[in-house]
TrEMBL record:
Leader sequence segment: none
Chain ranges of the EAL domain: 23-272
Organism: Rhizobium wenxiniae
Official protein name in the record: Diguanylate cyclase (GGDEF)-like protein
Domain of life: Bacteria
């Protein structure tokens, strides 16, 4: 208690200012990078749980900051969200990814959507616009969203979801099991797919109770007719458990890291021949 009292006095330190300044510089550089379309999109294979063949890809944004090198999405996505850049960033990724998947007939595409994008009433129209421009087929596209927005803005979220559905795109609930996931909203929103968070998958190797939790989670989704993808799959032992539960799609370093479109080309051709 004594320590926490002291740290309160130390709250405003030169370090804090330096941190804020660095964040400000990051924001400026990110804005420039987005405007110049310098962000990259990489693709991680999503495979069938049955035979390990590629069935789709998840698009993930990458930023190589000039003079510094790679910045993690866990750093620049939150910055984009708080500085009004996320709409532009998100549409860039969607556009690039929709254009790129045409190289791989039959593969599904997943793209991450931030709450800030979803909140924008123009979002469904913007998606429609990208679909038109890229001539991508909406049925092949899934937008991944995390639960926070749905819990906090249920009514608005339902409206946006209905509009997106009308376009023909699918909506997946991302990171399930990472937060305070509740059964109630899982039912009321009718997601097309659920993605189990990698923290739950990684726990399989550590805690006995994680196996039960995994089975219960997948059983819940199946009882609602929601197909399940497991993310962050790294070991054969995890695959074994996931097959037992009835997950139909797997994603993780075991099957492939996020990679360039050219590298997905090779995976695609390899699995076509199998
Ligand atoms: P996410 O949507 O949950 O994406 C999965 C993250 O797990 C990715 O991190 C991926 O590289 C990583 N991953 C995949 N397989 C494994 C594995 O086997 N083990 C481990 N430890 N990690 C694995 P990444 O690319 O760093 O992205 C982090 C987060 O940033 C994403 O989490 C997503 O929430 C966000 N993000 C990335 N790109 C975009 C984007 O274009 N738009 C938005 N709104 N968010 C994005
Ligand atoms: Ca995701
Ligand atoms: Ca996740
Ligand atoms: Ca996430």
């Amino acid at each position: 208690a004594k320590d926490s009292g002291r740290s309160r006095f130390e709250y405003y330190t030169p370090d804090m200012d330096a941190e804020r300044e660095e964040r400000h510089r990051l924001e400026i550089d990110l804005r420039i990078a987005i405007e110049r379309q310098e962000l990259n999109v990489v693709y991680q294979p999503v495979v069938s749980a049955q035979d390990g063949r590629i069935v789709g890809v998840e698009a993930l944004a990458r930023w190589n900051r000039r003079g510094y090198g790679a910045v993690s999405p866990d750093v620049f996505i939150p910055i984009a969200e708080t500085s009004g850049l996320i709409d532009q960033l998100g549409l860039f990724v969607l556009h690039r990814a929709c254009e790129t998947v045409k190289r791989w007939p039959g593969l599904k595409l997943s793209v991450n959507i931030s709450p800030g994008q979803f909140r924008d009433p123009a979002f469904p129209q913007n998606v429609a616009c990208v679909l038109r421009q890229t001539e991508a087929s909406p049925a092949e596209i899934t937008l991944e969203m995390t639960e926070g927005y749905f819990i906090q803005n249920a009514d608005r979220a339902k409206t946006s979801m209905a509009e997106l559905r009308r376009l023909g795109v699918h909506i997946a609930l991302d990171d399930f099991g990472a937060g305070f996931s509740s059964v109630g909203y899982l039912r009321q929103f009718g997601f097309d797919r659920m993605k189990i968070d990698k923290s739950l998958i990684h726990a399989l190797d550590q805690e006995r109770s994680a196996v039960d939790l995994l089975h219960a989670t997948v059983a819940l989704a199946r009882s609602l007719d929601i197909p399940v993808t497991a993310e962050g799959v790294e070991t054969d032992a995890q695959v074994l458990q996931l097959r037992l539960t009835g997950c139909d799609q797997l994603q993780g370093y075991l099957f492939g890291q996020p990679m360039s479109a050219d590298d997905i080309d090779s995976v695609f051709r390899r699995d076509e021949r199998r």
